[in-house]
Prior knowledge:
The protein is of the alpha/beta class. The chain has 25 helices and 26 strands. The strands form 7 sheets. Strands 1-2-5-11-12-13-14-18 form an 8-stranded parallel barrel.
Amino acid sequence: MYPNSVGYNPIVQHSILDSDKTPEKDHSTSGAECSTPLREIEMMTMSSSASVSQTRFTRNEFQLGDSKQILKETVGQLESEIRNSNSSASEKTEKLEHLKVLEHRSSGQLQRLTSNLKALYGDRHDFKDVFKRILQTFIAGGLERPSELKELDKQRENNPNWFASNKSIEATLYVDRHCKTLDNLEKEINLFKSLNVNILHLMPTIYKLPAGDNDGGYAISDFRTVDPDIGTMDQLRDVFTSMRKHGISPAMDVTVNHTSHEHPWAEAAKAGDPEKQGFYFLMSEAEKNEYQPNLIDVFPDIRKGSFTWNKDTSKFVWTTFKSSQWDLNYNNPKVLAAMANELMFLANQGAEMLRFDAVPLISKKKGTNCLYQENVPHILQTFNVMQKIAAPGMIFKSEAIDEPKLIKPYVGHDLCQLGYNATLPFHLWDALKHQDSTFLSAALTKHMQTPEGRVWVNYTRCHDELAAKFDSDLAKESGIDRRQRSEELAHFYSGATEGSFSKGKLFLSNPASGTVSATQGSLAGVEQALQNKDPQQIEAAVNRIKLLNSVVMSVPGIPLINLTGGDDRGQINDYSYLQDSDKKHDSRWLHRPMRDIDFKQKDALEVQVMDKVFTDLAELTRIRAQDMPAFGAGLMQVVGTGKNSVLGFIRENDQQKVMVLANFSDKPQPIDSKYLSRHNMVSAIDKISQEDAQALNLDTGIELAPYQSMWLVPVENKT
Ligand code: GLC
């Protein structure tokens, strides 16, 4: 693949276990001299204390029986290590017992592990050693699991879909921007509880990062070190334990595609360590030019090209995003094993969910755009095998922001259990702009009605830009011009369209990309309404927010509240990033403000908006979590309402049936009774507006106020 680079070379096949024998020589040679076959062999090797296997296996020769044998050997080896260790007798007993559990779980995963590793590395003549090393990493990681988490694992093995529930509500925040330190985060538990949050995702600024532009924390310098200004890893572990006591599952990011250029692996690569050079893609100009023409620029306004010159190695390094983010080379099995180690480290600190960043990029193949390659699901499946063996209490979330057909292959029980529902934000804001839910209904019908076994994370805004990601085939079928629709979104929500209520900024300067940065509040009209001090505009903006939140809370999956973006209080854009030279080129900072906890700097009207948005959201989350069992994962059926502006769908499970109606228009919308009675909605309670009040008589239909939504639960004796 990269014949003269330090990456994977399928022609030179050798053992991953040989490298321990040649370290001195490797370190004395500079990275720039790495092109002889001998060096390639050395660079490909994987250090391990295990003995070198005599038998070589490739894809077709390696069978399930071989994997069973490897499991036996691995367990035997670990068993004797435990017996010979200095641990106390009781610790040894506990570990040996757990080893049995891990062996049992591993047996159930061997078939999957074999087929996925064969797909990834089956052409290597040292495949058996690769297999052994990876399985060993998983089991060794599992052995480090603290008792409390082993208990959690047990519970969740019996209830593997625990997260697919109406009680699941996720929030996300940057600790540094929200409350500065981990100490203070403990004090925020009341906030999380009042929003009924049970999954809390800490954004990656929690980690040690390079100074300057670190892509909002997505250039991670060490997965094992917390930024000292925020706290320590010990503190983080304590915070996680205390969250768990409050019923909140902690979640963290893992940039599976890259590390920062200051990560110890990258530092070692820069210092000439051939093994660590093999973790990345280091190329000569000619080599990188073979890839570059097919690659896309992710941040075209900021940076052209996907490679960065590194003077230490005199090579170009593959950096898809920013120059501080070095792409990892999963063609090298050592990278997969090393990353698995980091995942297990975080899992063992108590992270119950890991968010896999930039998933579509993790497999690179020459001659392609290196996006969505066939090996991506195999890598995810392998991590999933690890999770099922070593940490079944943990789940993964896939971050891939694109068309549904592209991102679906990454989400599922055997992949990442959760995935961002990347098309939903577009459709929500698009429907609001057009005051028409037809395209939204079509998308929900196509992508959320069928039982595909995926759990989506639903949101109106996340920490990144709002992007026009939608099903292009569906757009075509619906007579929608993709480019025009994307441009319309960008123009409207950046405030350029005449009569727009919104204030945002284009993320990419080309409006055809359909990308806008802004908080939920500013997109929905709060900023403009506050500037105009117009009570009617304020009411409309607040109601738009409630409308979108009510849909996010009721479609299948898990709602996500972006706390740093201020989703809980109609936060408006923060323009201060323009004064910061590390941030001013990246408009996403517009919607990542420092949280002003005590509202001191806000004027009375703004505080009023914040209170109302918060009360509305807290109420929606409470009703969802307490009263709406039908709102878990389950199915939905999109139904007609007789009005293009009114979205209608049914959620139903064995406990409950609900009809959701959502009016995307700024005018009242009457709904004819026939659209209600055909779903047995003759008499119903709207859980949003009058939870305990009398049932509504729907015989003569119903009228929704501008931007109103309803969660109608039929009253049985009247049906
Ligand atoms: C993901 C993150 C985004 C980051 C990129 C590179 O898309 O959400 O914020 O810039 O990955 O890590």
